[in-house]
Description:
The structure holds two protein chains of two kinds. By secondary structure, chain A is of the alpha/beta class. Chain A contains eleven helices and twelve strands. Chain A has helices at 55-62, 85-93, 102-105, 112-122, 128-141, 158-170, 188-205, 216-222, 240-245, 250-258, 298-302, and strands spanning 4-19, 25-40, 44-48, 70-75, 78-79, 95-98, 176-180, 208-213, 225-230, 233-239, 308-311, 314-316. In chain A, helix 4 packs parallel to helix 6. By secondary structure, chain B is of the alpha/beta class. In chain B, a hairpin with a 6-residue loop joins strand 1 (4-15) and strand 2 (22-33). The radius of gyration of chain B is 21 Å and the shape is globular. Chains A and B meet through helix 6, helix 7, helix 8, helix 9 and helix 10 of A and helix 8, helix 9, helix 10 and helix 11 of B.
Amino acid sequence: MSETLLETFDLVKNFPLRRGLFGQHRLNLLAVDRVSLQLDQSETLGLVGESGSGKSTLALTIMRLYEPSSGQVRFAGQQIVGLDESKMLPVRRQMQMIFQDPFAALDPRLTVGQSISEPLDIHGIGAPAERAAAAQQLLERVGLSRNVIGRYPNEFSGGQQQRIGIARALALRPRLMICDEPVSALDVSVQAQILNLLRDLQDEFKLAYLFISHNIAITAFMSHRIGVMYLGRLVEIAPSRQIVTTPRHPYTQALVAAVPEPDPALQKSERPVRGDIPSPIDRPSGCSFRTRCPLAQAICAEQEPELRLVASNQYAACHFA
Amino acid sequence: MPNPLLEVKGLRTQFGAGIAAVHAVSDVSFTVDEGSVLGVVGESRSGKSVTALSIMRLIEVPGRITAGEVVLHNNGHTADLLTLPPAKMEQIRGNQISMIFQDPMTSLNPVLTIGYQIMEPLRIHRGMSSSEAQRYATDLLDRVGIPEARRRLKDFPHQFSGGMRQRVMIAIAVACKPKLLIADEPTTALDVTIQAQILDLLGEIKDELGTSIIIITHDLGVIAQLADRVAVMYGGMIAETGPVAEIFAQPQHPYTQALVASIPRLHAWPERLATIEGAPPQAVGGIVGCPFEPRCAYRIGRCAQERPPLLDITPGHASACWVAQAGGLPHV
């Protein structure tokens, strides 16, 4: 296996809130709670979880677009929490991001060529003519014609806009690409094109992906390993096939069972979870999943389970896993 | 043989007029049987939501229904909903046919309590007194799985979670025991564990009340879980329709074949996904031939010139594809 590109240690992101007419109630929204993970070069780590699970906040905190409240992030061997902006700039070059809504992520007043070469301008890479040539090459690489370079984002379909977003993210030759729900806003018949493209680019550019999605089937197709988040905690992490075939945490089991499989011949699985996800500002004591868990016992309210090895390469945070 | 409840015949709905007109729905026909679930699957702009709104006669200017019939069978009476006077249609809506939408927050009135909003149709359509309506509303909320139903009647929509709001919408929709419930992407805005709960609830409503359901979605997984029959829409037309098992196992339209092959599955591990090149049509106007022709791997000369009719390939399983009708579509 290749070397580690990204590591987090007990990473925490916490948003203090004030409630009440005069802001007299101080509350804490613990969006990311002591997450430790690592990602190798050319590897894809999928992050799944429902809304409010903290997966997007985790990604933004890793990139320091949110300042971590505590914990560490190590990128390519370098500790990056606390680096000042001038030292952070060369690190940022190596981490890029693509988003759910590609149109919102592109500046509507810039041509496609300008959007793709803008990162090169910002980092002062190459002469203007070289930047334009680079933009054309990137366009072709993501499956668009180099002739579209002077057109504007609104002239493209959603799938094409996402290709442009990918070309822009690739311009700086990053080592890590964070993909936050990159196909959720696209038509089903277009999703497969983008997923295949991302897999091809990974091989070609030796990219590591942090792939965030609420769709486990898509994440399993894309990822080598998958981490499952619930209310800010990483509750299970394991190789993709292992986590969908033999999930060990009751929440992962529920998540896998809840996926409506596109096959009417499959028996509908039992639905082991009832109820809603609690609010992240009012998290249950002990294990945060215990209020919905079919296995919950007294110990779950008292003691928070740590992530521990439960099978080969498989870690789960459950007293009973 | 099941009895038909709703027959849509040759429905056309367009927005605008003349050469700029967008034919959102062109010549759509299907039947929903009593006590069965029809799944309508399609991507954005396939015409699936406009079809639903046309059935309810909720198309607003500049849109209009230009042709077709929507025949509702009810205890031996039949009526074409498209020709009913508005007052009669008002009695059908919410009473015999009701509808739920993707985002329950926009369908609920934020300044009225949930209790008021459930009880209103009961008083209007069923002529219940306040106390009767309240008792019935409590039962309904209880039935759709809302804890402490009686107390929660006094709550406002923002006090409910997304999944709970969709349960409230379902309670309102089934309050008058409609014959038909139209659910337009009812679980798209919900998390996957909550989606599973809502799909289970819809299945229970069908079984217990005998309500027929039209479920509209882009998600083939939702279709596979809930539908008895499926209509696949593309570019304002029905590409294929048939029993759910056949649609997945022996799809008879190149679009359905490609769509079924392109979705990642939890327990299949391909190196690459099958893809459909190109993108769905942006606006559907002036298409003479088959709308899928530009993206189709099996297209022949006539596909761009002549629109294929929807014809049975096997009994009860129809495809609007010249190649399939000639027996030339390979099985996947």
